[in-house]
Amino acid sequence: MEILHTQRLILLPLTEADATDLFRARGDAEVMEFWDGPPDVTPSETTAIVDTLLSDVRSGAAKYWTIRLLHDGSFAGVCDLSEIQNRESAEIGFMFLRMFWSMGFANEIVGCLLDYAKSLGLKRVTARIHAGNIRSQRLLQRTGFRLVQLLSKYEIRPGVFRDCLRFEATLWELSHMSDRAQTEVW
User: Fold this and answer.
1) Residue 122 has pLDDT above 60, yes or no
2) pTM score, two decimals?
3) Which helix (H) or strand (E) is 137 found in, with range?
4) CA distance 6 to 46
5) Tell me, which fold does domain 4-185 have in CATH?
């Protein structure tokens, strides 16, 4: 899997060894507030999640990266293109440690992943977010996504329902956006 980077971040393929770093995000209730699953209670729960994610990577259904600061390699979060469908579409996702919120990193990651999706020949990228996640709504709209569906009482896990929003970006429409971060594949 490719290594990607933006001006300030490097995206390295997720590995089993990243579970310890990822637990710092997945174990934080505030980080997990708008995620479908509850916070992980133990590092072994995160390790099991990483095993599942890597299985999706091996099957070709997803690509997961750790997000690290380019200047020192510090772990900042995780991002993905998942539910990859026959070179047609994928769903985007990202999660950051709280200490890296409000620094513009999510904007860089979304731009990077959209550029990468386009390089794969995908036609569109979707995002499903919880309706209360105003910051992600604004980010998605700012980066060229449009709201396409309200998912009322969407079951995010067995027996747990939330209102969600589905956004979509058609990649050919985004080819003229000049303010997105430049992406390079290493």
Assistant:
1) yes
2) 0.90
3) helix 134-142
4) 26
5) Aminopeptidase (3.40.630)
Q: Assign 39 to helix, strand or coil.
A: coil
For the chain, the domains span 4-185
The secondary element (H helix, E strand) that includes residue 58 is: helix 43-59
Which are the contacts of 105, defined by CB distance < 8 A and separation ≥ 6?
8, 9, 67, 76, 77, 96
CA gap 74, 134 in Å, rounded: 27
Between vectors from CA 38 to CA 37 and to CA 43, what angle results, nearest 5°?
Answer: 105
| Separation CA 30–CA 39 (nearest Å) | 9
Cβ count within 10 A of residue 180? 18
Q: Tell me the C-alpha distance between 119 and 140, whole Å.
A: 20
pLDDT for res 175? 62
Residue 180: band (very low, low, confident or very high) from pLDDT cuts 50, 70, 90: very low
Give the whole-angstrom CA distance, residue 24 versus residue 3: 22
Q: What are phi and psi of 5, to 5 degrees?
A: -155, 155
